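Handout, section 4.2: multi-component inputs.
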Amino acid sequence: MLQKSNLIRCENLAKSFGPDTAVLRGINLDIFEGECVALIGSNGAGKSTLLKSLIGLHPLTEGSVVTLGEEFNALPTGKQRQKIRRQIGFVFQNHGLVKRLTALSNVVHGMLGMTRGWRAVHQAIAPSEWREAGLSALNAVRLRDKAATRADQLSGGQSQRVAIARALVRNPRLIIADEPAASLDPVAGHEVMKQFSNLTKDNGITLVFTSHDMDHAARYADRIVALKAGKIYFDRPSHKVSKRDLQNVFQD
Amino acid sequence: MSSKTDPRSDTRIPRLSSLSALEFTVLIIVGAVVIVSINDVSPSPQRFVEGLPRMFKLVERMVPPNTDPQFLWRIFLRLVETFQIAIAGTAIGIALSIPIAWMSARGVTPLAAGAFVFKSFVSFFRTVPDLVWALIFVASVGLGAVAGTMTIIVDTIGFCGRFFAEAMEDADKEPQEALDAIGAGRFTVLCGAVIPDAMPSFINTGLFALEKAVRSSVVLGLVGAGGIGQELKVAFDLFQYQNASAIILAIFVIVLLMEHLTDRLRIRFS
Ligand SMILES: Nc1ncnc2c1ncn2[C@@H]1O[C@H](COP(=O)(O)OP(=O)(O)O)[C@@H](O)[C@H]1O
Ligand SMILES: [Mg+2]
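Output:
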């Protein structure tokens, strides 16, 4: 029945952090290869929690998630989890850069988890292919000239783009990005989103990103999944989502 | 503001906050212990007055300090040895402290439950005083600088092991989570995210350890663990007070220089 292969399948996923505080309930979601999916919802809707569930960063309360053919909750060892995670790029909401290292070192970190990944801990000891890959990833986000700048000297938009370059450099099958434009002003936000969606399209990378900006979702995603109070409110191709639908997502 | 309050109303506020019976008892006991201790072991005025002339006599016999070139050369060689003990001990101690701190740092350690074993070792190293370690090592490896260096190593692990672990625990969590999310192992997260973030604190702690090591390596010789302290002990044992004063001056200069140097380095690296 499926023409394209299925990278992620959530079945009846539920997550709560304590008794009677369900953050996510009854989530059924499929992500197919080559898609660009936006996950939208207001603050506290559970977007970040859902993204972290996709790569097993916290245990599920109910249901299952199968990512790249493996079910995280059924994987006992860290090694097996690592094997799946190394095919995925993850961009955190607060970027998660190492502040005292240069942009290039941070991008080369994207190679950690690969075979002999320890050489990616710092650009100075990285193999030259990895340094080159790091520089071309920085080039792709137009930050090549900031390669030697320390992360704590970068602006919010630059730091966001370094985080994106770190995800791109490993040439993953899938990138999951949490609010990749949230900390940016509108102009920089659009620029980053445009670069990001073009780069993933050009390299055949599946992209799942969250946003609380309806404009970003409508413009850059092929498909929009709306979360409201921990449940899926709708899940449709973006050309079938009206302005009205979007407004309803953000209304109580 | 307080125009309506009667100025005498403050008399209703007790000058002393009232004590509970337990607090009062504890206070009395503490007071008694202090008085008894002073009575037992501190110099009585009489003893002090009697000792004073002898102290002056000692100082008199100390001046002028011995400036015989041959003697000064021997002292210089001993000072070099003292420094070597401090530097070698600190360097090896810091190198060993990093893995030990990693094993014992909460949230960073690759061991789940075993971390406390390493924490306890570090506490044990820290709480036993350096002269006691020196006695133990002199008894086991014999007199000389090697015992001194081993003492400094243990002392440095006790100090750096603790503060390195605290710096690792305080390191920014977000990059660690980000690297974990892309499949990095514990060791690469340590090298890629934790250590770079904790580096300023490591350097600061390391410089303090060096300063501490110079100070302790000076006295280690008193129990036979090498360095300048050994000469000082000989000088006192043989009543060569002019030698002793020269050695004390040399120690004073060297410790002062060291403090100045580490202060400069701290400013340079912070
Ligand atoms: N680690 C956690 N412990 C307890 N509650 C959490 C935790 N993470 C998220 N939550 C709660 O889950 C809800 C959804 O959070 P989140 O997934 O971050 O929402 P969003 O990303 O859509 O803004 C919030 O109410 C938040 O307080
Ligand atoms: Mg969020």
